[in-house]
Design a protein that fits this description.
This protein is 73% helix and 0% strand. The protein is an all-alpha fold.
């Protein structure tokens, strides 16, 4: 889907680090300037303490998601899952949602085969993320429902990728 209209204002060039930068990034996010907010959160994270840095990078992942940069958002959450001071269930859940959204919008692929293959890959990675969220928070109904829905879609996505591969090879 189309995001909010972008403004003509340039992205923040030099954002302050730490809390001041986080507040600036939050203001951009609240204005709907998600692309600028993602950059500002990432800039503010540099030089921040570990807990604040983690929070700012988490928010950057949310901003990347809002602007439709699903792979980058998923990668941001994946990187956060390697840290100590992170809500693993929330980061894994958000990674799963970003990957699922990416599976639904595989527009960047060059051809039908790549699109089908990319969709299947996104769905498998999304299922893995929701499984991780459930291992951490077994009572999470949203993670359970999302995983169930995705597991039902993977066989069809794999079949579409296989058909596209055969069409590409034997045309």
């Amino acid at each position: 889907g189309a995001g909010p209209a972008t403004t003509n204002s340039p992205p923040p060039v030099s954002m302050p680090a730490g809390r001041a930068g986080g507040r600036s990034a939050q203001a951009l996010y609240q204005e709907g300037r998600y692309e600028d907010a993602a950059k500002a959160y990432q800039a503010a994270a540099r030089g921040a303490g570990l807990k604040l840095e983690t929070d700012l990078l988490y928010n950057a992942g949310c901003a990347l998601f809002k602007v439709g940069r699903y792979r980058e958002a998923a990668d941001q959450f994946r990187d956060l899952l390697q840290r100590d001071k992170i809500d693993i269930a929330a980061a894994a859940y958000n990674r799963g949602v970003a990957l699922y959204s990416g599976a639904l919008s595989t527009n960047g692929a060059a051809d039908e085969f790549n699109r089908a293959e990319q969709k299947a890959d996104f769905l498998r990675e999304s299922a893995e993320a929701f499984q991780r969220a459930l291992r951490t928070a077994p009572q999470s109904d949203p993670s359970r429902k999302s995983l169930s829905a995705i597991l039902q879609k993977i066989p069809e996505a794999d079949e579409q990728a296989k058909i596209a591969s055969l069409m590409k090879t034997y045309g």
